[in-house]
Amino acid sequence: MMESKSKMRISLIILVLIVQVHMLPFSQSKSIVKHLPGFLGDLPFTLETGYVGVGKEEKVELFYYFVESQRNPHQDPLLLYLTGGPGTSAILPLFYQIGPLNFEYTNATRSDVKLEVNPYSWTKTANIIFIDLPVGTGFSYAKRWESSKKNSDSLVVTHAYEFIRKWLMDHPTFLNNPLYITGISYMGLIIPRVVSNIYDGIERGVRPELKIKGFLIVNPHTDKFIDFNSRTEFAYRAGLIEDELYEPAKEHCGGKYIYVDPNNTLCLDSLRPIKECLDRINVVYILDPLCNRQDPKQTCRESIYSYSNIWANMKSVRQALNIREGTVNQFQVSNANISSLFGRPDTIYYSHDIFSSLAYYKKLVTKNCHALIINGDHDMTFPYMGTKQWINSLKLGVQSPWKPWFIRTQVAGYEKTYSEAKFSLKYATIKGAGHSVAIYKPEESMVIVETWLASHNSSTS
Description:
Keywords: Carboxypeptidase, Hydrolase, Protease, Signal. It comes from Helianthus annuus (Common sunflower). The chain is of the alpha/beta class. The protein has 14 helices and 14 strands. Strands 1, 2, 3, 4, 7, 8, 9, 10, 11, 12, 13 and 14 form a 12-stranded mixed sheet that branches. A two-stranded antiparallel sheet has the order 5-6.
């Protein structure tokens, strides 16, 4: 009898050890970061970093930064933020745009990168998860080579949905926070599908039930024809091309300036001088000079991104962020093998297989869902002209007509609100902003988001 009990104890101990070994990677997949190289003293906010395994057999490990709201983290909205590109690291929005810290340029050198508090961080009133997505972006990695090759827009949708479900299961205290899927640029093709998947999951009874309230997209890429085609009309309205160039193109091309029929020589001929006028325009912000990032003598907004490459490749930074050794040898703020350019074919690493997200907007119109779409009015990447066109195609009712919105009595931009049953969509422009609006107009970016979130949530300070 004693021998039987002894064997049972040994079996139980072995079982516990096996369970602990299997749980170990998951239990060690997140950590609180209290200090960051380049910032003096303790971080004045709660920062967590970690990994979430997704995909078949969790062969893909997605790295994230989670910043708790600096107001009321257990009641304030939870935002999952998807960075554009695709292939641009979450470090970009976290340290250049909407996060609680910024790279400080005035007193920094390329060998001594400094961080400072961002007074216009969205995390003042919201919890935000910044994620390196898709795999191959930032510090996210695949456990097997084939998992890093087989990537696409459609797979990003699947991974984003799986990520937020698993993250919330591991962070149950945030399960009841209002959830918003947010992001910028190329993620305009991705986000509506992720949100639609969440609503579909709720209707199927998938647990845990996500408290989805809506989505927010800055300068969204929504439809590959509408967005790129609208650049010509935008350039005309912005005074970059004259009537004598625009009118013949409009007539001969019939308003279709891309994917032109090669037999339509009149259209092609009329587009050549327009192309010459726009070739040296900085599309992300038409008032800035065109930047050559490879020229060490040139200083421009885009060249400052090199700070993040230097900082994120420092051993002390990787240790502070708890990056798994041997997973990403060389950090790059943007993965050129993944990123999208107009007319660029797919690569062996990535398939840009979503042409438009408009069908999913039409699905979401039937849900209890709130959307905020923001355009910088000096962005020619995905101009406001195209955004207005696809919004109009939804044929929503107008709840509030076009009007200015203000900061301290000054016009900050313009807004218009649409609604259909329980669905609402606010469209807002930010005056004088380019593609990444928070870089050009940080306060305006923060205020419009705070105001919109507050209008749909009852969080108290």
